[in-house]
Amino acid sequence: MATINLLPWREERRQQIKTEFLVILGAVVVLGAVIALIVMSAYNSAISSQEARNAYIQQHIEVINREVAEIKDLEQRRQQLLDRMSIIQSLQGERPLIVRVFDEMVRTLPDGLFYTRIDRSDKRINAEGVAESNNRISSLMRKLDTSPWFDNPNLADVKAADILGDQASSFKLSYSISAPAPDEDK
Predict the structure, then answer these.
(1) Rounded CA gap, 29 and 154, in Å?
(2) Which class in CATH covers the domain with range 98-177?
């Protein structure tokens, strides 16, 4: 004989499937939340670790920048000292030269002529003076031209001047300093 089940088994089956679905859905949501927390925790840990490394590097960069600034300051002071030393050495080297130049200026100065003003800029001497006559100025120019210590004498101006009732000539000239070879200055 055939058995007929009249109980609402389909309704129970639907209810069982619905309950299983809700349990699985809850488990998936909880699992997703746990995974999200783990991932977020890992990212936060990586970010804080990178920030710590950045702070460490920034601290060392500041220390190195201070050291670089000190090195630049020391190099600048060193260059200033080297410049001072070179100036002192050049002045020490020129000391005998200027004495010889003044000595040669006196040797080339003829009688009856004197300088009223002398300027030196680098290797160029500009002079002003008064002479008893134009012949004395010509004599000075010849002596400057033949001097081993002076080059390129250039007479810029000659004027008649009245000095204490005497007729005289005022003049302006310039010439270059040229140190002779060591055997010529004896």
Answers:
(1) 106
(2) alpha beta
Q: 147: Cβ–Cβ under 8 A, 6 or more apart, which residues? A: 104, 107, 108
Name, in order, each residue with C-beta under 8 angstroms of 93's C-beta and a sequence gap of 6 or more.
Answer: none
pLDDT tens, 107-148?
999 988 989 999 988 889 999 999 988 888 899 999 988 988
Within a 13 Å sphere around the CA of 71, how many CA atoms are in the beta-carbon half? 6
Torsional sign, CA 150, 172, 115, 92: negative
Rounded Cα distance, 36 and 20, in Å: 24
Whether the model clears a pTM of 0.85, i.e. scores above it, the answer is no
Q: Any bridge partners for residue 163, and if so which?
A: 166
- Strand blocks (E) in 46-96: none
Please give the Cα distance from 180 to 98 (Å, whole number): 13
State the Cα–Cα distance between residues 94 and 97, nearest whole angstrom. 5
Give the span between the Cα atoms of 47 and 160, in whole angstroms.
Answer: 94
Where do the structural domains in the chain lie, given as residue ranges?
98-177
Give the chain's radius of gyration (CA, Å): 51
Q: Give, in order, the Cα–Cα distances in Å from 117 to each of 171, 174, 184.
A: 11, 12, 28
- Two structure tokens written together for 144: 């400057």
